[in-house]
Amino acid sequence: MRFYRFLILFASISATAVLFPAEERAMDTATFAAPPRAVFPETWFHLIGGNVSREGLTADIDAVAAAGLAGIQLFHGAGGVWPGVTPQIQTLSPSWDGMLEHVADEAKRAGLRFTMQNCPGWAMSGGPWITPDRAMRHLVWSRVDVGAESVEALRLPVPQPSKEEWRDYRDVAVLAFPTPEGDTGGNVAPVAIRSNRPDLPWAKLWAGSEEVPDLRIEPAGVDPVWVEVEFAGPLVLRSAGFPGIERFAMRRNFDPSARIQVRALVESAEGAPTWRTVADREVPRGNWQDRPPQENAWVLALDEQPARVYRFVFHNRKPLALLYLRLSTAARLQDWAGQAGFVLRSLDRSGPPRQSPAAWVRGADVLDLSEHLRPDGTLDWRPREGRWTVVRYGHVNTGVTNTPAPPEATGWECDKLSPLGAEQHFAGYIGRVSAPGGPVDGGRLQGMLIDSWECYTQTWTPAMEAEFATRREYALRRWLPALAGWVIDDPLTTERFLRDWRATISDLLVANYFGRLAELARERGLRLFFEAATGDVTPGDLLEYYQAADVPMCEFWRPNDPHWGGLEAKPFSLAVSAGHIYGKPVIAAEAFTNILLDYSEHPFQFKASADRAFAAGVNHLVLHTYTHNPRLDLVPGTSFGSRIGSPFIRGQTWWQHMPAFTTYLARCQAMLQQGVPVADVLWYVGDDLDQEPRADTPYPSGYKFDLCNQDALLRRISVDEAGRLTTPEGVSWRLLWLPQDSARRLTVPTLQRLRGMLEAGAVVLAERPQQRVDLSGGPAADAAFDQLVSALWGNVPSPSGEALLGRGRLRWGVSLETMLGEIDCGPDVAGVRATEWTHRRVDGENIYFVAADRATPLRANVRFRATGRPELWDAVTGQIHPVPVFARVGGVTSVPLDLPAAGSVFVRFRAETAPVAWQQVERDGTVLLDGMDATRTEAGVPFPVQGLQPGAEEQPWIPQPWPDLTVTPAGLGGKLVAWRDGNYTMRGRGWEPISERVEVRAAQVLNAGWKLQFPSGWDAPSELNLADGVQPWSAHANPAIAAFSGTAVYSTNFTVSSLAGNERAWLDLGRVSEIAEVELNGQILPLAWTAPHQLDVSAALRAGENRLKVHVTNTWFNRLAYEAGLPATQRRTWSINGPVADAPRRLAGLTGPVRLVFGRILAAPTAP
């Protein structure tokens, strides 16, 4: 239980089913107190290897239901044999089908929704039913150079990466073009190497051996690390290849924080040699699959400058690992692999290198020699003159399989660019088990999940050339050399083609994979959950694929993600924005995925992570994860079989307390599924199909945004009579924002839509586009682009300005914050840091969620852009508290909030036109609360726009001082309670002050007569007398007592005189590790699972003697660490990858101090 310390707020977690569609009436108090099952969270449910039993499944499903979870989403992953589990089940066998049917039947009996991951394992969509010709395909090529003088037969090697039959090589085309200047087909090696770090093994980079050098470049200080390479004579380096970002940035894929500068030493007969910079570029953001087996070098394109000596300078704020450095005199497009969609990286738009066109390929010179290829691989063609490069293109099975699945359930990943791949895949797994007569038929299976993209990239499908021609309106074939890095005509033209190429891949993924699987699933009545894909690991539109889902999903990890990227690695904004622009009322998150699992986890640890997801717009959590335990006699069980995943399992010490946690989550989820989200800015991501915007993009505090893609802009966003941008579902925004990165390169349809929206009354902040991003439409489209740019931004570029078109306004050259001010759009929330809140509107009322930081209390007068009478809705207790002190100026209401670390609250504004309240409360002349004090704001640096918080995120213990004032719940009159002696005065604008003298009794410390009882079976005594008062059992000298994990009971008796009619008493437990259930005089009080552990005991307290019991539950960590040092025969627990024997023990039990604190209800009314 909690009380409002004016005001204490508690964490929330996200929502699940559509309980309150947009425009329905706001939630009533009874529903908030006891939310329906439909809005409770769900959990992933993992079967591991052959370790499955019917009795274990029944026990698990009963445990899931008893915990207050609303559904399971089933996976079957790989794993070894667990002790005592025989026989081992074979996935996809008849006995497995029987187990699956048992799960479905038991879930139905327990009232749980049943969803399945769409394939065995969790990545991505594949299995043994996928044939090589329907597998993911990759474009490959081989090269041969030939001169007119050659007389030997020209043999073109088959360009498959390995010789296995399953590669299923198929030819695409044979092309030839005059060999560009400097393009030898190989790399060059220096004859001498110098560096300011001669201790590093630079020579191994060019030694020609297979040995991978251990060459780490630590962050640069005053003097960055550099290496010079010297050649026998002057030459022109035009490109340099570095490792893929995952390895180069040492897994800091999403924020390498490095810049590479290349200088050429220019010699002159007239004077001393000078250094000239030939390249200076940021290392791009990558992704965690930018690595073998599909690693593609990051290629740096250099200005042409003949030189014998080149210097590479590493300006890096984070470590780099230089595994190779490939130097070439051939011209290659800057990061061609990223631009060609072979890997997802942020696009470099800093401009092309200065190179001679002689180093590039003229598109008009490209010859199609496909008909000249003989069956034996020879070519019946010779150039008439000069030297030519001949390239044989084909496609192969990528070799990627669904992982990590049991071996018998592992097979090729399906073709994601062809509907045939999706159809073969669906038929092999979900289609089979859900068909009439299948193990989950008859509606027992209710949903299908596509987990996050983890199958690298796909770059070809048999119908690719036809699809490209249809969608882009020109032929693909002569542009194929650009897909291998060659520059065609010039770099900018090549980049425009590669954008068309990425767009085609994205279109095919959306239609033929996500779209087709969704169609097939809906034919079976299944609800679709999609996790992150394009723009996260594989190139493509950031948002469009989500339109085929019923529930867009993202994910968040704790205590940190595995790639040192914080929310840069796992952003909320993509799924949340997709939900808003595509009309998806439920937005889910895979929640609490853990990379450092050690069984120290407990519900309060998860709270702040959930709050952050909530504040970002997530409204349904799916826990990661519940792992099936086939045995009933082994505790705690395991999560996955590795250190990944938080162990939400029936063997947890705190599993019996899960209902308090899940009920809390359900209240929050129900609140956040009401009505529609409120945001001011629609942030257009551009037409270049880049990565998502950086998490630290400058963005004004106090405003929410949604990302918008081209599909939604063209097909879903309209302009209403008031000039607001709006969706058919009623979500709306004040202005459309195209920052410079988004506006730099656009398409004609986008400009046409912008003009139409402006004419209809929209407000648009957009910088002047510099170039058409695509080649579709040819010269006519180029002319139309130029005309539209001139019509909107004027004939002559200007650094700032505005244009009025129809009823709308176009502005450029000012900041977003300035623009919001110009349209009289003040902050929606002020006084708190940027990402700690969210806002929804339902039935004419405004509902805000506000959260404190994990380690910092929030004490501020929070200003909301809303009117009406505010109330505080506490999702921990289900109680509602009126706000007796607030102030309103114009359309902004200021509410004093006082939240503990990791606290949160809903602030609901009732639709009252003329609310009245006290604006100030003082004690003995000192102001305690002042609703008009605009200087009372949250301390600390605002988070970046996406909420990036690098570093580990364990929940610390933060002592909480006792408040001066609290407010009782509405059911107790919503009165102010004073907790200190003094003269209290309430003031309101235009009202006479009211004063009252208050005297409170001193706090009573309970430090005597304590006993501590342990359950049998764990080597601890049944009872201990605590002569020195409460103390954590982890501090006991007896190792078995210190190692106890579970629930132990502290008890004592105390006396107290009777409470006066206006007196309140609270029990303050001090520090609790981790959960406390208090029993006072036989009455069980609400569970104390969040800090501060303080409970209202006014109703349970008796005059005279009182009997107090505190049931304290800790985690499994200490016992598992203790037993790790015991012989296996003496262990009573079992898990995989638990803590090691010498791990420092965690605090466990009741530290205190325990005390009774007394206060007085003020006689003054709640409002003047």
TrEMBL record:
Keywords in UniProt for this one? Hydrolase, Signal
Query: What residue stretch is flagged as signal peptide?
Result: 1-17
Q: Using the record's annotation, list all stretches that form the Beta-mannosidase-like galactose-binding domain.
A: 1048-1125
Q: Which Gene3D superfamilies match?
A: Galactose-binding domain-like
Domain of life of the source: Bacteria
Molecular function in Gene Ontology: hydrolase activity, hydrolyzing O-glycosyl compounds
Q: Which is one Pfam family of this protein?
A: Glyco_hydro_106
Please tell me whether the keyword RNA-binding is annotated for this protein.
no
What is this protein identified as? Answer: Beta-mannosidase-like galactose-binding domain-containing protein
* Source organism of the structure: Lacunisphaera limnophila
Organism classification = Bacteria, Pseudomonadati, Verrucomicrobiota, Opitutia, Opitutales
